[in-house]
Amino acid sequence: MRLEAQEPPLSEALRFDRAEVRPRERQLLVDGAPASLGARAFDVLMALIERRDRLVTKSELLDLVWPGLVVEENNLQVQISSLRKLLGPRAIVTIPGRGYRFAAAISGQPRPGANGSGDTVAARAELWPPSAPRTNLPGELPELFGRSEELQAVSALLEAHRLVTVVGAGGIGKSRLAQAAAYAALDRRPHGAWMIELAGLSDTALLPSTAAGALDIKLEGSGSPTEQLVAALVPRTLLLVLDNCEHLLDAVSQLVAAVLRAAPNVTLLTTSQEPLRVPEEQQFRLLPLAVPADNAAEHALDFGAVALFEARVRAVDPRFVLTTDSAPLAVDICRRLDGLPLAIELAAARVGTLGLRAVRDKLDARFKLLTGGARATLRRHQTLRAALEWSYGLLNEAERAVFRRLGVFAGGFTMELAQAVAGDAQLDEWAVLDLMSALVDKSLVVADSGEPPRYRLLESARAFALEQLAEGETADALRRHAEGMMDFLRGVDDINMDGELRTDQYAALVVPELDNLRAAYTWATSDAGDPKVAIALAAHAGSLIDYAVECADWLLPHVDAVERGAVDEAVAARYWRALAAGNMANIVPHPLKFEAAGRARSLYQALGKPRRVFSSLIRLMTYQLSGGDEAAARAAFAEARSLIRPDWPAEFRIHLLRRESALLRRAGRLGEALAIQRDEVRLSTGTCDWRLEVIARNNLVDLLWQAGPLDEAAQEARRLLEDLRRRPTTLADTDVLFANLIGILSEMGRVEEASDAAREGLPVMQRFRTYYLEEWAYLFWRRGQTDTAALLLGAVEAEAKKPGAPVAPNEQRLITEMRAALERSMPPDEMATQVAAGSALREDQLPGLLAEALEQPGSAG
Question: Chain-wide mean pLDDT for the chain?
């Protein structure tokens, strides 16, 4: 058959490597001897040789070699395989998903299509000499820690695409990953893999000559340097790595586009702090090295950050090895450095001089500590500050302003908060949005996954931003941050108080901002802060006490200021409502909670907020009932019920059912109370609000405990506990369940089970500072630890003497039974001594006392 070709068919003998092709005789010789080659394989070889200036697609080869026939693609693969066995694996290059290209250099033959007159740049491009080097990479690469998955991903992209950019922050390891990817691709590129370092290049006009110099290409003919470089690349199949492109983006983009257009067998890998934005570009964003989630994590060396840290310390001190004592320090260092390889290497270099603990303790002064990188590294990678100054210097003035101001955020932040803090008279919210996008592209701001996404600065970048901010903007930025947090909390809290958010929805909005809230409140209460902002933050943080117990401590210090009218009525109403909340039970004295509920009710009535009047009345009724004023409690309940409207969320009806059950329970109508309580459980479950369901089921457990039988109460408590293990919650009310379970099991005589529940429940109670000492005292009495029981009895009776703190029915029953038994079994003087000592116990003494007593053997039968 005669092949159809764009160039005239070749007739003269062609020599390359160890082979010679004689087209007229249709013969292939290898090492001077005729090779056994089928007709189809010879046709494939000739088709590729005649089109050696370009890639030949699979479909084109099938049409050329099997014209008019329908042939399976694997037939082509068989012929290619036969040719490679004879010619060697590098003679024919596979371009995955696209086709094949003949890559061997033919002696004495110009490239097909070249102009023999030599008038064009392309005609002067010489084929790569067989003896020429194939790479400028070092003979042996340093070990790449924690990047095996990233290396596989970049390698796969390079096989499928002609332009890949590794994007990431300065010092994150882009160059080393690119170097490893180039090394891995070396055997698949006949003309090798070449790395061109651009960090030291400032003149864009020198870019083509810099690349040509690295490739040993001489630019001496006519045409621009870029045209000459591209022409020299046309006949070559290689990987070209352009490293550190962020300061030359326009010039690199133009060069890359020219190579992509004219040199079809050149693949490009670039590294940059932001993308090139060339249409063919495939981006791979490099993240920091993995760090264990906690300091005590086992197998710390399985994480790339820790493995790199240990290796770099061992390079200075070969005797260094991580132990169970030192590993937590190393993990803490790596986490505080965000897994950033440059920072980790610089920190490791200091360990030999300072020691591991001292390096960890000095990280707050990281820019002074993290200096002295290896002399072989780039100058800007010899100190952490230099690396960040390089990145900062590439920003325009508006980008720098936004970057600096973002430093005031603790942890992550939303786009809305960024707009509130980083904006000013010149930068409106839309400008900040665009600048934030630019900072993400430039790898100075990290965009975390999620919907909506959250943003953050790596800690080293944040420290640098705060340094820049300190030159005159710190005070304004801190105020904007605190006021932005105040506005954010007010908006979310208002929706939450009106019952329009489920607990999980509220938590998803506010819990991620806890670090920002703490930072804002710290500023607001400082000498440079603003008391009004502090009160507003405390008031709107009242709903957050279940997630951050310290928010409770923010409220009491502002009582006098709010009473004096330091804030407007809306903030004051929210403040009093927060102070009256049920989760303030052990922090705010009962009389103050009662007063706060009444004040909140009056203010919300004046403000025309009926839903909030309702919630204040519910709190007021609770305190009236616990104080023994049933008539006032019933009046408050009736007023609250009159306010509710059919279109109000289900949460309001749930509150009514809960209080109605409490009233029936107080009246001794336990059967009716149980029916109402079960209705509350059904309605709460239907809301899909897990916290409402937990509270309702907890209340049912407590009522079943009072009404009996105990077996049913224990079963319901166990069922709820198992559900909580499957659907864990950080909310309060879990502590109540453990208290109930301890009491129920102890009363049933199942002392070991009660003790196990106590061990599991103590950390929960400690977190929320609620210990339910009646149940604990009864448990220790049942365990035969009478001294401890009498001690806790004293604490219980001291608490009961406080105004408005009556003991609930179940707890009263336990205490009555236990006191009588202790009086029968203990000498009066001994019991009196223990009770007196218990009445003087402080809250901070309880966790240790309870834990220690649990570990002592009991004498119960």
Answer: 85
Classified as helix, coil or strand, 16 is strand
Q: What is the crossing angle of helices 773-782 and 734-747, to 10°? A: 30
Q: Contact, 510 vs 541, CB < 8 A? A: no
The strand pair at 56-57 and 99-102 is best described as antiparallel
Question: How far is the C-alpha of 321 from the C-alpha of 332, rounded, in Å?
Answer: 16
Residue-wise pLDDT for 323-371, tens only, equals 888 888 999 888 888 888 888 888 888 887 788 888 888 777 666 665 5
- Which three-class secondary structure state does DSSP give residue 461? helix
Residue 683, classified by CB atoms within 10 Å of its CB into exposed (0-12), middle (13-18) or buried (19+), is middle
CA-to-CA distance for 800 and 689, rounded, in angstroms? 34
From the DSSP assignment, how many helices (H) and strands (E) are in the chain? 38, 14
Measure the CA–CA gap between 587 and 556, rounded to whole angstroms. Answer: 9
DSSP state letter for 33: E
The whole-angstrom separation of Cα 226 and Cα 2 is 39
> Which amino acid makes up residue 671?
G
**DSSP letter (8 states) at residue 801:** T
The set of residues, in sequence order, having a beta carbon less than 8 Å from that of 316 and lying 6+ positions away, is: 348, 349, 351, 352
DSSP string, 305-354: HHHHHHHHHHHH-TT----TTTHHHHHHHHHHTTT-HHHHHHHHHHHHHH
For residue 348, give every residue at least 6 positions away whose Cβ sits within 8 Å of its Cβ, in sequence order, or none: 308, 309, 310, 312, 313, 315, 316
Question: What are 306's two structure tokens?
Answer: 């820790």
Q: Alpha helix (H) ranges present in 8-106?
A: 39-50, 58-65, 73-87
Give the range with max mean pLDDT: 31-35, 188-192, 419-423.
419-423
Angle, alpha carbons 72-75-78 (nearest 5°)? 150
| Residue 610: closest CA among 658, 575, 652, 579 | 652
DSSP assignment string, 217-278: ----SSS-HHHHHHHHHTT--EEEEEE--GGGHHHHHHHHHHHHHH-TTEEEEEEESS----
- Over residues 312-320, the mean pLDDT reads 85
Residue 577 near residue 600 (C-beta atoms within 8 A) = yes
Pairing of strands 193-197, 92-95: unpaired
- CA-to-CA distance for 46 and 58, rounded, in angstroms? 15
The first and second tokens of residue 206, run together, are 């020198």
Residue indicated by tokens 């592209």: 441
Contact (Cβ atoms closer than 8 angstroms) between residue 3 and residue 95: no
Q: How far apart are CA 743 and CA 702, in angstroms?
A: 10
The three-state (H, E, C) secondary structure of 759-782, written as one string: HHHHHHHHHHCCCCHHHHHHHHHH
Helix (H/G/I), strand (E/B), else coil: 130: coil
pLDDT, tens digit, 9 for 90 and up, residues 39-80: 889 989 988 888 887 778 777 888 888 887 777 767 787 888
> Which residue has tokens 């009445």?
839
Q: Contact 269/142 with Cβ under 8 angstroms?
A: no
Sign of CA dihedral 766, 767, 773, 776: negative
DSSP for 564-624, written as a single string: TT-S-HHHHHHHHHHHT-GGGTTTS-HHHHHHHHHHHHHHHHHHT-HHHHHHHHHHHHHHH
Instruction: Give the residue carrying structure tokens 């694997």.
Output: 74
Sequence letter at residue 172: I
- For residues 269 and 164, is the Cβ–Cβ distance under 8 A? yes
Instruction: Output helix, strand, coil percentages for the chain, rounded to the nearest 5.
Output: 60, 5, 35
Smallest Cα–Cα separation from 486: which of 371, 575, 550, 370?
575
174, 224, 226, 229: which is closest to 199 by C-alpha?
A: 174
Q: CB neighbours (10 Å) of residue 716?
A: 21
